[in-house]
Amino acid sequence: MAEGDSLSLLRTLPEHSISLVLTDPPYHATKKQNIYGDTAFAEDQHYLDWMAEYAIEWRRVLRPNGSLFLFCDSSMAGRLEVRFSSYFNILSHVVWTKPNDPGFDGWKGKMKKEALRQWYPHSERILFAEPATEGNLNRSHFGQFLREVRQQAGLTMHQLTARIGAHGKVNHGGAVSNWEDGRNTPSREQYQRICEALVETGKVAAMPPYEDVIRVFTMDASKEFTDVWTFPSVRPYKGKHPAEKPAALLEHAISATTNPGDLVLDCFAGSGSTAIAALKLQRRSVSIEIESSWVARIAARVQDFCDMESILKSEQTCEERPLRVFKYQPAQMVLFPVAK
Ligand SMILES: C[S@@+](CC[C@H](N)C(=O)[O-])C[C@H]1O[C@@H](n2cnc3c(N)ncnc32)[C@H](O)[C@@H]1O
């Protein structure tokens, strides 16, 4: 984890090194005095320009098959989506709604409903996106990669389709043309056949593993599969971060979009909830926070988590890979130990 301004630090991270950016910047629209940066922008446009600088860096540091979750306020979500569309394919516009128990739904009690001039914004938004590339219909990195490697192999779309037996009913190139246009992606088995067909030509030496080219999206019937997410907010407790996000929501996002061992980046770490969720799921984490008091809290939380882990799983202890917090200096980054 690192302490400092995340935009400066982000610019020092290597490109294509991160599998998931999961981050919750100041919302700007909520104007909370107790969140650093929430009142920093006089105009919405300045906030959007600042976020666009992050978008450029996030696309650079993300692996081409990586993902982004960006928390935002409903009043900024549309404009952020348009701005981010220059760099990302927006895949879902998640609405997070909070079924808070009576006694913890303060907004309901406080609200003078007769004074409302619009529907009360009872949800937060989370943009879910993948890095975009140019060169095909749906700006798909995999589509571009497949086209290049197929051409290198000297095969037409028809020839590759015939070799892997993936004839589609709709258009002539079948599944291959759909994949190259970024309409969808091959299954693991189909990708295996693509690799064999391309390598057999003798013009392609080797193909990367499935995990390195296809964006992770793991879903099953037991999980919340729609773009409306229902997770209660974090109940107030002494020392709670004013914008702390629920662990269950973060784990839902991380488990669907990463594999164990993948690197998850949070540029606005707050209480460190993303880092803890990532470690709990055996992912690795890079967290950046500007306020030293919160950095100290994150360090303590992560240390507690690691201590608990090492008690539960005695083969690896945090003492072997001690956690250190750095003040921001370029090229000084420490990754949290991977929980095995
Ligand atoms: C909305 S809160 C994040 C809360 C977090 N998701 C959690 O669950 O605790 C935003 C955080 O970003 C931090 N922050 C604001 N501007 C920053 C910057 N330029 N670089 C790094 N952190 C920043 C704030 O101090 C605040 O803790």
Helix-strand blueprint:
Layout: E1 2-3, H1 6-10, E2 18-23, H2 44-61, E3 62-72, H3 74-84, E4 88-97, H4 106-110, E5 123-131, H5 141-152, H6 157-164, H7 174-180, H8 188-200, H9 210-213, E6 228-230, H10 247-257, E7 263-266, H11 273-280, E8 284-289, H12 292-312, E9 326-327
Parallel strand pairs: 1-8, 1-9, 2-3, 2-7, 4-6, 7-8
Antiparallel strand pairs: 3-5, 4-5
Helix pairs in contact: 2-3, 6-7, 10-11, 11-12
Residues 5-7, 24, 26, 35-37, 241, 243-245, 268, 270-271, 273, 288-291, 294 line the site of S-adenosylmethionine.
- Share of β-strand residues: 15-25%
Shape: globular
Please give the largest β-sheet: 9 strands, mixed
**CATH class membership of the largest domain:** Alpha Beta
Distance between the terminal alpha carbons, to the nearest Å? 19 Å
CATH superfamily of the largest domain: Vaccinia Virus protein VP39
What is the mean pLDDT?
88
The H/E string reads: EHEHEHEHEHHHHHEHEHEHE
Write down the CATH topology of the largest domain: Rossmann fold
Low-confidence parts, pLDDT < 50 over ≥5 residues? 327-340
Query: Regarding quaternary structure, how should these chains be classified?
Result: single chain
Biggest sheet: strands side by side, in what order?
6-4-5-3-2-7-8-1-9
Number of DSSP helical runs = 12
How does the helix and strand content classify structurally? alpha/beta
* Helicity range: 25-40%
Any idea what the CATH architecture of the largest domain is? Answer: 3-Layer(aba) Sandwich
Tally of structural domains: 2
Would you count the extended β strands for me? 9
Please give the radius of gyration in angstroms. Answer: 22 Å
Small-molecule binders here are: S-adenosylmethionine
